[in-house]
């Protein structure tokens, strides 16, 4: 059997399971109108640690929903953290962020598959490069090429 290098073959109880390399969902984002109110809500209801970032991050509010290591990376596979941005218009909606290895190549794949890039590339200090796109169904989705860790 041929198995590309980006896939893993696992045989479990006579079942063959192939895990493909994927571009995982790594973050969620939701709009907010009032930082203090939203932070208090998610902290008191779900126990999330809410942290308002500086103006160099546009006052973005990070939502830590799960434990992270000293580099801010999630410790439990499958769990994600997220954040909130200040909504300036009606109709802003929550979205997910997908991690990719090569942002520019994936942007081309989106366009050739019927999607649309919504904004220019944004460099987020210490995080990576980010862009929003619209998928074939009209959903707005974020995409991140993480910065290389030192």
Summed up, what is this model?
The chain has 150 residues and is mainly beta.
Question: What labels would you give this structure?
Answer:
single chain; 150 residues; mainly beta; 2,3-Dihydroxybiphenyl 1,2-Dioxygenase, domain 1; nine-stranded mixed sheet; two-stranded antiparallel sheet; disordered N terminus
What structural category arises from helix and sheet content?
mainly beta
Q: Tell me how many strands there are.
A: 11
> Number of folding domains?
2
Shape call: globular
Q: If you compute it from the alpha carbons, what radius of gyration comes out, rounded to the nearest whole angstrom? A: 18 Å
Helix content: 10-25%
Question: CATH topology of the largest domain, anyone?
Answer: 2,3-Dihydroxybiphenyl 1,2-Dioxygenase, domain 1
Percentage of β-strand residues: 35-45%
Which architecture of the largest domain per CATH?
Roll
Q: Helix and strand succession?
A: EEEHEEEEHEEEE
The total of helices stands at 2
CATH homologous superfamily name of the largest domain? 2,3-Dihydroxybiphenyl 1,2-Dioxygenase, domain 1
**Main sheet specs:** 9 strands, mixed
Broad CATH class of the largest domain: Alpha Beta
The low-pLDDT segments are 1-7
End-to-end distance? 38 Å
Mean pLDDT: 84
């Amino acid at each position: 059997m041929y198995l590309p290098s980006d896939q893993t073959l696992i045989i479990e109880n006579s079942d063959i399971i192939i895990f493909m390399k994927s571009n995982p969902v790594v973050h969620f984002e939701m709009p907010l109108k009032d930082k203090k109110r939203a932070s208090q809500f998610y902290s008191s209801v779900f126990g999330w640690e809410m942290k308002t970032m500086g103006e160099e991050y546009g006052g973005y509010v990070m939502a830590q929903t799960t434990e992270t290591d000293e580099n801010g990376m999630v410790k439990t596979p499958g769990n994600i953290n997220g954040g909130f941005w200040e909504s300036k218009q009606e109709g802003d909606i929550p979205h997910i962020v997908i991690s990719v290895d090569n942002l520019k190549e994936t942007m081309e794949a989106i366009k050739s598959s019927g999607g649309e890039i919504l904004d220019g590339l944004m460099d987020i200090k210490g995080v990576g490069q980010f862009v929003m796109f619209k998928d074939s169904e009209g959903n707005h989705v974020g995409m991140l090429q993480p910065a290389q860790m030192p």
